[in-house]
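ok new one. same drill as before - structure tokens go in, u give me an amino acid for every spot. 151 of them this time. try not to just spam alanines like last time pls lmao
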């Protein structure tokens, strides 16, 4: 499970590959955050994110979950007051990375169930008395929301 809480650390953090940073730099939310919080000339978008390797379609394919490193003013770009944060999931395609899922929640779980060969993904969590869960299934190209439940 991946936690949106910025104080929680990833078990196996790794730098975000340049190919993924290129995709993230075109994300509307990331671009808006950069506009509000310009990256210093000596800095890089790489300092804003951390990745963790996962296996969605077998052990021979290395996929990535990317989370923001939330420090200072950037915290509110990627996290709500309630602690809901953003997650990006990438899969390798012909030598580059492709965005397979972008979702928000208190956490992100990679499930054992599979569709079209890829493991299902669930996001969500509980805020106050309300619990929301969204399940995503791979449609052959990307993850699509299959089920959303609020209680």
């Amino acid at each position: 499970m991946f936690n949106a809480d910025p104080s929680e650390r990833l078990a196996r953090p790794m730098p975000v590959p340049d190919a993924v940073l290129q995709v993230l730099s075109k994300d509307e939310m990331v671009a808006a955050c950069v506009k509000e919080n310009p990256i210093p000339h000596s800095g890089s978008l790489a300092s804003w994110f951390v990745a963790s390797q996962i296996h969605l379609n077998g052990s021979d394919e290395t996929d990535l979950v990317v989370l923001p490193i939330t420090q200072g003013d950037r915290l509110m770009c990627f996290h709500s007051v309630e602690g809901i944060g953003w997650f990006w999931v990438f899969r390798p395609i012909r030598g580059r990375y492709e965005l397979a899922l972008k979702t928000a929640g208190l956490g992100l779980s990679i499930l054992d169930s599979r569709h079209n060969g890829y493991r299902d993904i669930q996001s969500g969590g509980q805020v106050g008395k309300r619990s929301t869960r969204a399940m995503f299934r791979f449609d052959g190209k990307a993850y699509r929301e299959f089920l959303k439940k609020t209680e």
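The CA atoms of residues 25 and 31 lie 6 Å apart. and btw The first strand starts at residue 2 and ends at 3.
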